[in-house]
Q: What sequence folds into this?
């Protein structure tokens, strides 16, 4: 079984596979977004305390979840690149970073817009927001390291080490920030209130999260394909592909 | 000489060499400490000279200054050896890179982290640090400055020789220092409030243990990756 | 019509909810459009290069 998996490590095969997968993920994401938006904006009833303001949750929570998920993918792909020295996993890891940073940025902005009506300020040192901010710094540091190292393979391996160091640190950071937050602020309403959420509110949230995940897969594969073309531009198969105008 | 002895010999030889070099080029030693004091001074200038204000922020200011000074001093760990080719020689030697990385990190801590503890006490005088905070502060620094050196060395190894490496290194390392900062300052502040700080100290100890076991490997990997 | 305007008003929170959704849409679309754009530009460049090399 392993042998059949390793053939996907070939850039050419990965390119083809990604091309076939993108429409699936893309259309699924689109459908899920439509369903999720309807569910979140129309179907779910207004919250008892927060009225319609709580609906920001449907873009805030998925973004935050994806920001963490993307980091895990980035670190895993990096580890795969270190262990098996595959070029495709390097491409995946590298392209996760801007996406992860985008998700983190969205989580922070939507969190801020949620915070203003709820707590009166655009920023609050809530545990989740603070963790997201630190995560953004981790992504940006990773991207800075990648752009500072010119040789692609070395950059990928160095990035992989940094991502793995980050993975060890993320639970530590998360725990530290929660501890720090409860220390300094006392019990406050958390931004999710998930355990007390009604099912009618929860289902659109799950749908939106799935939508974001399919979106992530589609967009990542588009980027990876572009990277493969760029990296393999001197190879025969790319030459054939471009000249024939193929996909 | 059996293998065990010569590995230890290599470790202590490298340690001794780095310490001698560090003491010879005293500027490398004193500059971070000077930066530390300057950063400390920025706070009374910006917060005002009021004793009560400064005293309440003292543990936090001292630790932030320590973190900043440390992140900027890390450049020195690998830079000069990289530039004259010694770093490659060290990696090519038959001794385990992990051990040699450990030697360099220990040298760095002895030259920067340990003196920092003394300077922190001086900073405490400048910031009217209460007497009850002195022991907790020293304990957190004893547990924390090795972590600064260990984790910092990973960033140093990843960025060695790159353009703008000192800044890049700091960008990478500061988010990773944040949990340390949270627990160290909380420990000192809690001690001042009269609570027991055993929990915080255990956590700092755990961070140190984790860093001690993982960082040298990460450093060795990073050096091998960067130096091919 | 009051249904639509009530919906757009979001119980008074409109000026927070809609920017949040709008920004999300913007960033998500940008991450679709920009990579596709770049790939198209890359393909054009490569095509020109290969055709030149064939001559």
A:
């Amino acid at each position: 079984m392993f042998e059949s998996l390793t053939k996907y490590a070939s850039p050419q095969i990965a390119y083809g596979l990604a091309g076939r997968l993108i429409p699936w993920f893309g259309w699924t994401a689109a459908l899920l977004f439509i369903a999720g938006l309807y569910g979140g904006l129309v179907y779910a009833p207004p919250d008892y305390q927060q009225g319609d303001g709580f609906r920001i949750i449907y873009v805030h929570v998925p973004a935050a979840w994806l920001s963490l998920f993307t980091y895990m993918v980035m670190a895993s792909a990096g580890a795969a690149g270190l262990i098996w020295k595959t070029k495709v996993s390097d491409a995946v890891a590298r392209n996760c970073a801007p996406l992860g940073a985008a998700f983190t940025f969205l989580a922070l902005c939507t969190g801020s817009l949620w915070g203003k009506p709820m707590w009166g300020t655009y920023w609050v040192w809530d545990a989740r927001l603070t963790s997201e901010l630190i995560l953004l710094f981790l992504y940006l540091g990773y991207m800075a390291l990648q752009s500072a190292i010119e040789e692609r393979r070395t950059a990928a391996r160095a990035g992989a080490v940094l991502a793995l160091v980050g993975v060890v640190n993320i639970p530590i950071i998360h725990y530290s920030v929660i501890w720090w937050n409860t220390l300094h602020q006392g019990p406050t309403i958390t931004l999710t209130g998930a355990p007390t959420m009604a099912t009618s509110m929860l289902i659109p949230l799950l749908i939106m999260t799935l939508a974001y995940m399919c979106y992530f897969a589609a967009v990542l594969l588009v980027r990876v394909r572009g990277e493969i073309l760029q990296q393999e531009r001197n190879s025969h198969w790319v030459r054939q592909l471009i000249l024939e105008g193929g996909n | 000489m059996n293998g065990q002895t010569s590995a230890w010999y290599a470790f202590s030889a490298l340690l001794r060499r780095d310490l001698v070099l560090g003491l010879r080029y005293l500027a490398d030693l004193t500059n971070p400490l000077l930066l530390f004091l300057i950063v400390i001074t920025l706070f009374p200038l910006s917060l005002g000279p009021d004793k009560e204000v400064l005293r309440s922020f003292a543990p936090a200011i001292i630790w932030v200054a320590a973190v900043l000074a440390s992140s900027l001093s890390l450049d020195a760990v690998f830079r000069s050896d990289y530039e004259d080719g010694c770093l490659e020689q060290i990696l090519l030697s038959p001794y385990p890179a992990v051990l040699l990385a450990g030697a360099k990190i220990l040298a760095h801590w002895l030259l920067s982290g340990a003196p920092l503890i003394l300077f922190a006490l001086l900073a405490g005088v400048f910031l009217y640090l209460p007497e009850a905070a002195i022991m907790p502060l020293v304990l957190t620094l004893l547990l924390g400055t090795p972590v600064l050196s260990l984790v910092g060395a990973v960033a140093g190894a990843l960025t060695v020789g790159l353009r703008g490496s000192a800044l890049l290194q700091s960008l990478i390392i500061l988010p990773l220092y944040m949990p340390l900062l949270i627990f160290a300052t909380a420990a000192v502040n809690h001690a001042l409030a009269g609570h027991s700080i055993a929990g915080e100290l255990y956590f700092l100890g755990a961070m140190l243990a984790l860093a001690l076991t993982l960082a040298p490997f990460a450093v060795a990997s990073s050096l091998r990756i960067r130096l091919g | 019509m009051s249904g639509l305007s009530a919906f757009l008003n979001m119980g008074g929170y409109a000026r927070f909810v809609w920017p949040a959704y709008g920004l999300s849409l913007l960033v998500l679309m940008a991450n679709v459009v920009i990579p596709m754009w770049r790939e198209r530009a890359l393909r054009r460049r490569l095509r020109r290069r290969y055709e030149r090399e064939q001559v």
Notes: Chains B and C do not touch (no CB pair under 8 Å).
